[in-house]
Design brief:
Elements (H helix, E strand, L loop, with lengths): L1 H26 L11 H15 L9 H16 L7 H20 L1
Helix pairs in contact: 1-3, 2-3, 2-4
């Protein structure tokens, strides 16, 4: 069962990456020149990293489902056009890690 789970994770990440690249080329017509944070990508990144890092806290979903969905969402942002999605990914990791630390310490 472990091999199938890892295969699902890889397929989920690859599909998210490809879809993120396609969507970002439609959304952004120019190369990375501005340093603005995209609010939609930020929300997707936070949700994805939350699902990946805090999958054990979500008792109503099997962990492989939440991790697969989280990897898909993370890959949407990571797979964006070069330069885009970097800041959103960093903020998503930081916020999810703070939530994880807060919930495990309490």
């Amino acid at each position: 069962m472990d091999e199938i789970t890892y295969l699902i994770y890889i397929i989920s990440f690859v599909l998210g990456s490809v879809l993120g690249l396609l969507l970002s080329y439609k959304k952004y017509n120019q190369p990375f020149v501005t340093k603005k944070i995209d609010p939609v990508a930020l929300i997707i990144s936070i949700a994805g990293w939350f699902l990946v890092l805090n999958s054990a806290l979500l008792f109503f979903l099997p962990s492989f489902v939440s991790i697969s969905l989280g990897l898909f969402l993370v890959a949407l942002v990571l797979g964006m056009r070069p330069g885009y999605g970097r800041y959103e990914t960093v903020f998503g990791i930081l916020i999810s890690a703070v939530v994880w630390l807060a919930l495990t310490i309490i």
